[in-house]
Design brief:
The chain is 35% helix and 37% strand. With 105 residues, the protein is α+β, with helices and mostly antiparallel strands. Strands 1-3-4-2 form a four-stranded mixed sheet.
Amino acid sequence: MILSTTPQIEGRTIREYKGVVTGETIIGANFVKDLFAGIRDIVGGRSGSYEQVLREAKDTSMNEMMERARAMGANAIVGIDIDYETIGGNNSMIMVATSGTAVVI
């Protein structure tokens, strides 16, 4: 599966548009990660635990979107957009939503 944030793939012709595909993931950030992230905020530096959660959520959302595109008969997704949001009480959950256009090239 070819993935691109651009509306087309250079050097390739889009032969068929299959439609919009999406992937969504909501993942909780647990108390231990919150505690260590809070300490990082005080002393500075990156929060590796939150970065890992974000990567996991993004990868899951992208994989879900790719599976939906495959089910439509697509072999590429163009115009991909990735959105991150915090939701839930005290913003305790992270939502990653991906969208794009499934195409045949």
